[in-house]
User: Fold this.
Amino acid sequence: MKIDFNHALIYYFKDSDLLKKILLLYLIFIASFIPIIGLFLPFLISGYLAANTNSRIFRPNDSALYEWRNISHFFKTGCKTLVPLIISFFPLGIGLSFFMITAILGGLAGAKGGAATGFGYLVFFVCCLITLLLVLLYLLPAYLVFTTNLECKSFFNFKAITFILSKNHCKDYLHLVWYYFLFTLATIIIPFVIFFLPFILLAFVDINAQFVRQVFAIARDKIE
Assistant:
């Protein structure tokens, strides 16, 4: 499998209305840091990116991004990712809650509470590992399947999900995970990268689309 990174980084510049669309994406991204309102806007961004990924899967030669007119559609599309997010991060929530409880009880117990706090650390660490595995083995491949039709049932299409993780495509999937890891690492190490986040996310729209096209072109029936 070959991912065309040059194309992923420049395709959207062919859109004549790019400036308007990217400015709106920036504004929504900034507004997502506002309390209360910011709880909902990430789903709007997620839906917009998923819709554009779907467009690029089936219309790779069309460089135009979606207009922001149908905001309700993007928000509903983004909300469809809520269930798999809850499933994937549920262990992390349990681990964090358990750690906080044991830390409080350990603090109240004084010197005798060290064992409880240590056990809380261990449970939290195990829950973090479980969450990481769920993200890698379920959430990301399920999201890739979801971009083929933007339907909730795609998150439970284990036939297609396991096809991505199969022996024939596992190496290509790990490469995709590596790209996500490098992007996340760069964002942590180099804070100003976040200012280019909308452009990077749009690049991943095409990277994801290229991956899905190449994987499922081998067996289109696997998506169904």
Remarks:
- Residues 5-223 form one domain.
- Confidence is low (pLDDT under 50) at residues 218-224.
- The chain has one domain: 5-223.
- The chain has nine helices and no strands.
